[in-house]
Design goal:
The protein is an alpha/beta fold. It has eleven helices and ten strands. The strands form two sheets. Strands 1-2-3-4-5-7-10 form a seven-stranded mixed sheet, sandwiched between helices. The chain has a three-stranded mixed sheet with strand order 6-8-9. Helix 5 packs across helix 6. The two termini are 22 Å apart. The model has no long low-confidence stretch (mean pLDDT 95).
Length: 265
């Protein structure tokens, strides 16, 4: 087990599940530079670990992430443009790292999911949320525009017109509306969020790692390909996976009417 138990971002790895937890509960996990750097480093460490089969994102205390640390920008004064770049560079590296990670990324959401916090949630591959979670893009309220890939992720999830509404108006969305729009995959009572997150993470971790990797890559790259190019990529990936020990194990388990055990090879 790997456990980084101090700092503004906690990383623990156990039983093939990497957990990255934002840990500034007194600030509702608002992201400052230290947190952005720690998040980037945790993503790099988790995604590079061959034993990790799923990455879970969560927040300590009463919120997932309430956005960027506005006090940091206020203190920067007329140096705010450079301060913004200093903060955004590592957190954008983390977002890119999540997209490129071979493992599926699961966001576990509760409380306030706002600004950069909502952007990070949208960047995950799957999301589970407490049924009292509140979402708000919030950027327009502080006279700015999205970062952390929200302007890329949100239109792909809800369409351009709805994305314009969500970002321009910055109205709060309750959990039920987030589920209806496809911003999250599942709602659960807050008291069971941790257990339900672990159950879903375990299900992903127990799946065939090569298949999980292939599915994620194919879906994430599909938007930049034409149909024939995507068909070619699908054929190449399926054929490659068909030569794996996990594929053979899946076939034997199917015909043997037993649960398969995948080793990622």
């Amino acid at each position: 087990m790997t456990d980084t138990s101090q700092g503004s971002v906690l990383l623990s790895i156990e039983a093939s599940i990497a957990r990255i937890c934002f840990n500034r509960p007194d600030a509702l996990n608002a992201i400052d530079v230290t947190t952005a750097i720690a998040f980037r480093d945790a993503v790099q460490a988790a995604s590079a670990d061959a034993q990790v089969r799923v990455i879970v994102l969560s927040g300590a205390g009463r919120a997932f992430v309430a956005g960027g640390d506005l006090a940091y920008f206020r203190a920067a004064g007329d140096q705010a443009p450079q301060a913004a770049r200093t903060l955004i560079e590592p957190i954008h590296a983390a977002i890119a790292g999540l997209a490129a990670a071979p493992q599926p990324v699961l966001a576990s959401l509760h409380g306030a999911v706002a600004g950069a916090g909502m952007s990070i949630a949208l960047a995950a591959d799957l999301a589970i949320a407490a049924d009292d979670t509140v979402f708000n893009m919030a950027y327009a309220k502080v006279a700015n525009s999205p970062d952390c890939s929200a302007s890329w992720s949100l239109p792909r999830l809800v369409g351009l017109r709805k994305a314009m509404e969500i970002i321009l108006l910055s109205d709060s969305l309750d959990a039920a509306e987030a589920l209806r729009l496809g911003l999250v995959n599942k709602l659960v009572p807050g008291a069971t969020l941790a257990a339900e997150t672990t159950k879903l993470a375990r299900r992903l971790a127990d799946s065939a790692p090569l298949a999980m990797r292939s599915i994620k890559r194919l879906l994430r790259e599909s938007g930049s390909r034409g149909l024939q190019e995507q068909l070619d990529a699908e054929a190449a990936q399926f054929a490659s996976n068909a030569g794996s020990a996990d594929f053979l194990e899946a076939l034997e388990a199917f015909f043997g009417k037993r649960k398969p055990h995948f080793e990622g090879r």
